[in-house]
Amino acid sequence: MVLNFENTAKAFALKSDIELKKAYWLFRVIGQPRLARWGSWLTKKMLDWHIPVEGIIKNTVFRQFCGGVSEEDCRLVIENLQSKNVFSVLDYSVEGKADESAFDEALDRISSVLINASITSAIPFGVFKPTGLGAIELFELKSQGVQLTAAQEQAWHRIVHRFDRLCGLAAEHSLPVLIDAEESWMQDSADQLILDMMRKYNRDRIIVYQTIQAYRWDRKQYATTLCETGRLDGFKIGVKLVRGAYMEKENQRALDLGVKSPICPNKKATDDNFDDIAQYLVSQIDVCSVFLGTHNEESTLMVARLMDQKGIDKTDSRIWFAQLYGMSDHISFNLSDLGYRVAKYLPFGPVREVMPYLMRRAAENTSVAGQTSRELSLLQKELNRRKL
Ligand SMILES: Cc1cc2nc3c(=O)[nH]c(=O)nc-3n(C[C@H](O)[C@H](O)[C@H](O)COP(=O)(O)OP(=O)(O)OC[C@H]3O[C@@H](n4cnc5c(N)ncnc54)[C@H](O)[C@@H]3O)c2cc1C
After folding, report:
1. Does a structural domain hold residue 6?
2. Which in 120, 205, 208, 253 has the greatest CB count within 10 A?
3. DSSP 210-251
């Protein structure tokens, strides 16, 4: 059977008519940047003023994009996804807390998610974000090669220790772990740390995955050096490949500092870079595994075709496709229906605390050209099909 993304019956099989209509209206709001911005602002204010809006949030945007308030709460969603051959990556999405006790709390929480994930076949990866485990300022200083004070040095050691605890735990429980990528000005030190973790834990199998953002024009060279280093030093490479989520911020910062932006000059250049890196990684599949985090249909089709040409089985666990929960179901479920390895990033956490994540989702949806209108047209198509 040929892969195509038009089958909305498969894409939305898990959604009731009411859920479908809710999703349609939600994407209509998100698709209007001014309304989405105003809605995000108002929601934040209402939460700050303790107006009881959590119930409304929970029944709308939270239900669309999150699995639940706790791991336990996500269980039904995880089981439903698995019934369609789609796996879950539980993402503890509490953002914006940045002190040592919050980092230790995040470490404990993510450790427990990793351990619980390792006992179910429905969750094939763990995930964490570098700045969930340490201050972004410290990653930034370290990336610039600045001499740290004694206190900063100690804080950095605590970050290294937290990374090692999570990667070590992942190795102990044989559960690969994906490490998110963030802003370019803090990423070098995170990359170096992740490289150390790969060197330590990816000897015989791939436990640690680092994220490469293809909107950065220097990343093809980076991917090449990474794979060559792995070959030379005898360890394997795990890569989560994404386009990148911080484009506006990156371009604005470069403009403010009067330096060249690390971001590709246009969307086409990012797309070409993504496809080029994806092809390169698939060509290195003897030492590398790739987890493609994308909602882009062309890139997904390109990799599926490439797998076919190279005789790589659809079910090969070295190549995963992944989308965010609540988005691009037409890609996830049509891929999984043909047997490809597919995962959904499933954010969870208390409603109030995942708000920053949800607001980023709403903001990003307004800036990701074409995706929201594509979601809308597919939802409309399925609503019409069901009416008939
Ligand atoms: C499972 C998963 C995990 C993710 N993890 C991370 C992560 O760890 N770190 C992270 O940064 N992001 C992450 N993302 C988000 C991702 O980077 C993208 O922002 C998002 O997926 C949109 O890109 P796309 O490939 O899906 O779709 P598309 O709609 O094809 O691409 C949109 C993207 O193209 C790029 N772009 C758009 N316009 C331009 C332009 N004018 N010039 C240059 N580039 C442009 C931007 O990166 C934009 O986000 C993740 C996404 C998924 C699905």
Report:
1. no
2. 208
3. EEEETTBTTHHHHHHHHHHHHHHHT--EEEEEE--S-HHHHH
